Amino acid sequence: MDRDSKVPERDEAQDKYHDYLAIYRTVLANERTFLAYIRTILVLAVGAVSLIKLFDHLIIQTAGWILAFIALVILIIGIVRYRRMRKLIRSQAINDGFIDVC
Questions:
Q1: How far apart are CA 54 and CA 38, in angstroms?
Q2: What tens digit of pLDDT does each residue of 1-45 get?
Q3: What is the structure's pLDDT at 74?
Q4: Residue 62 CB: number of other CB atoms within 10 A?
């Protein structure tokens, strides 16, 4: 590298550590996203139960059942996306030699 360059050279150990941290951050981001799905599902489920149990009007109860169905669909989507991403991250980590990350 140039003497005037201000960017220090990184060795192979630093590169490996940087890659390890990047994979670990990705794992944590995937878990945060899954928790956001769960939070959304809980809000929709509470809203659905409230509409179904607290109101006797048919249209409002129907809206509650629709919310319950939407919550179920979001739950399935969240689980599928989380597992798919976890599998992709795990395969990348194994390819890079980081088996213990996932």
A1: 24
A2: 555 567 666 677 777 777 778 888 989 999 999 999 999 999 999
A3: 97
A4: 12
pLDDT per residue over 60-80, tens digit each?
Answer: 999 999 999 999 999 999 999
For residues 56, 60, 61, 66, the Cα torsion angle rounded to the nearest 10 degrees is 180
The tokens describing 66, both together, are 């629709």
Closest CA to 13 of 21, 5, 25: 21
Please state, in angstroms and rounded to a whole number, the distance separating the CA atoms of residues 16 and 11. 9
Which amino acid is residue 39, in one-letter code? R
Provide the residue ranges of all domains of the chain, joining segments of one domain with +.
Answer: 13-95
Any idea which residue has 């213990």 for tokens?
Answer: 100
Chain-centroid distance, C-alpha 25: 12
Q: For residue 41, what are its two tokens?
A: 């599902």
